[in-house]
Amino acid sequence: MMKARRKSPVDSVSVESHYCSIDLRLKILGRVPFLKSLSAEALEAINQQFVEFGYHPGEIIYLAGDPVRRFYVVADGKVKLLQHTLDGHNVLLDFLIPGEFFGSLEAREGQVYQDTAQAHTSICVLSTPTVEFRNILDAYPQAALRVLDLTMQRLQDAHQKVLHLSSMDVEQRIASTLLKLAEKLGRPHEGGVLIDVPLSRDDLAKMSGTTAETASRVIRQLQSLGLIRSGRQWISVTNLTKLDELIQLQ
Amino acid sequence: MMKARRKSPVDSVSVESHYCSIDLRLKILGRVPFLKSLSAEALEAINQQFVEFGYHPGEIIYLAGDPVRRFYVVADGKVKLLQHTLDGHNVLLDFLIPGEFFGSLEAREGQVYQDTAQAHTSICVLSTPTVEFRNILDAYPQAALRVLDLTMQRLQDAHQKVLHLSSMDVEQRIASTLLKLAEKLGRPHEGGVLIDVPLSRDDLAKMSGTTAETASRVIRQLQSLGLIRSGRQWISVTNLTKLDELIQLQ
DNA sequence: CGAATAATTGACTGAGATCAACCCCCGTGG
DNA sequence: CCACGGGGGTTGATCTCAGTCAATTATTCG
């Protein structure tokens, strides 16, 4: 290839994000999709229930199997959501961005987390015990319906992923993953849509149901077709349309 | 094999189920998990909003892409939930049993169903426009939280399926599908747990991300190990423990 | 009894996993 | 400033699981 690869255009450590400014928490909560419609007083009351935590890249927020039950909202940075088997195999379900929630909504005793949450970049999260959050949802039915809508949307996404894993070949699955990522995390950059998160071949593989080696080969292929550009830990989509066509045909 | 195969012990057409007895609708609604905690008056009010439909085996309730937006509850029989690609490939997401809901909760204009619902046996469903159902959830926040819980549970199941499709071989995936089915649809029968729904090799394949031929070979293998018994359109699990061990190891 | 649908079985093939070696950055510290 | 170490990425060779194609058998139902 003729191009010189620059340093990654993606920041892995957002400046000064390890702690949320306490004064800004209300503003953050007000921007959370499922709380958007609430009054200032309601937000103030809800804010009382949340505490904040900061994590460095790679730190575990909770592990699948842990009994602790809290509910989290991403305030800053990107959170990795993982699912794993006993023998170390694991899949990367999603990158969560500010405003998205994760953790448990399950209030019954003896329950455990079914997935693992890990700081992908430096992050700040707001958190509250599950029970408290259920009280909040009880008190604000509109918020509960919003959370339900978002959960149904995630269920749709998961069902689509099941379909893709069952019926697409590797190239199509990777193309589809890239499109989803570009849509959610895309930022215009040098004539393409840069996926704004540090993204290794292995990350991409674990999102697409394949291996890092195969992901690498597909990346090379897509690059030579001029549909994407890529370097160490970053990918930019330069032709969304053609990438989408790849998925449609057959 | 030494056994004589009998006629399928599974009924595909439940007696007299094509129409719900109108008098029994309240009883049915009262047994729906997410309405269980409501008062008799609330149930009566909710009942007013629902109408009933009957379908024969194979009939389509709605197709992915259809713009109509209704919300459904299975009253009697089994409903197939499918997801498909443009080119005819499709996966079987689940069999829904009485008390489970399906359809759209999305109230915005211009939305379409993302999956297909099909009568698997003779069925009766109760149905209401999505907007009406959202009003119901608004009026009864406990019900909304129950629906949220059930949706989160489905999301977990979907995530687990993604994991299985990404990391298990065919035998393990089929074993896992059979265990899930036995748990949900199992009925004791001749020393085994009979999966109480007509289940072809192709159905099983489309639930496990493989083909009917491969499913057939795996079935033979599991049968020769004495873990299951099977005939045309039916499967009975005779050794849940060993089937589960198949999944755990490696 | 015959048609239709489901299931089985075999032969072949190929996509992609696995294994292994190597390269290329990039940050660090002498 | 350069040497070095390590993690990410690339590439090739090999091998295998399971998909595909095709023919045959079994079962149910009208």
Helix- and strand-based class of chain A?
alpha+beta
Oligomer: homodimer
Mean of all residue-level pLDDT scores of chain A: 90
Computed over alpha carbons, the radius of gyration of chain A is 19 Å
SS element count, helices of chain A: 8
Order of helices and strands of chain A: HHEEEEEEEEHHHEEHHEEH
Strand residues, percent of chain A? 15-25%
Task: Please describe what this structure looks like.
Two copies of one chain form a homodimer. With about 250 residues, chain A is an alpha+beta fold. Chain A is built from eight helices and twelve strands. The two termini of chain A are about 30 Å apart. At the A-B interface, strand 5, helix 3 and helix 4 of A face strand 5, helix 3 and helix 4 of B. Chain B binds a DNA duplex (30 and 30 nucleotides) through helix 7.
What topology does this entry show?
Two copies of one chain form a homodimer.
Chain A: H1 25-31, H2 40-49, E1 51-55, E2 60-62, E3 70-76, E4 79-84, E5 90-96, E6 101-103, E7 116-119, E8 123-129, H3 130-139, H4 141-167, H5 170-185, E9 186-189, E10 192-195, H6 201-208, H7 212-224, E11 228-231, E12 234-237, H8 240-248
Antiparallel strand pairs in A: 1-8, 2-7, 3-6, 3-8, 4-5, 4-7, 9-10, 10-12, 11-12
Chain B binds a DNA duplex (30 and 30 nucleotides) through helix 7.
What descriptive keywords fit this protein?
DNA-binding; homodimer; 250 residues; alpha+beta
Brief summary:
The structure is a homodimer of 250-residue chains. Chain A has helices at residues 25-31, 40-49, 130-139, 141-167, 170-185, 201-208, 212-224, 240-248, and strands at residues 51-55, 60-62, 70-76, 79-84, 90-96, 101-103, 116-119, 123-129, 186-189, 192-195, 228-231, 234-237.
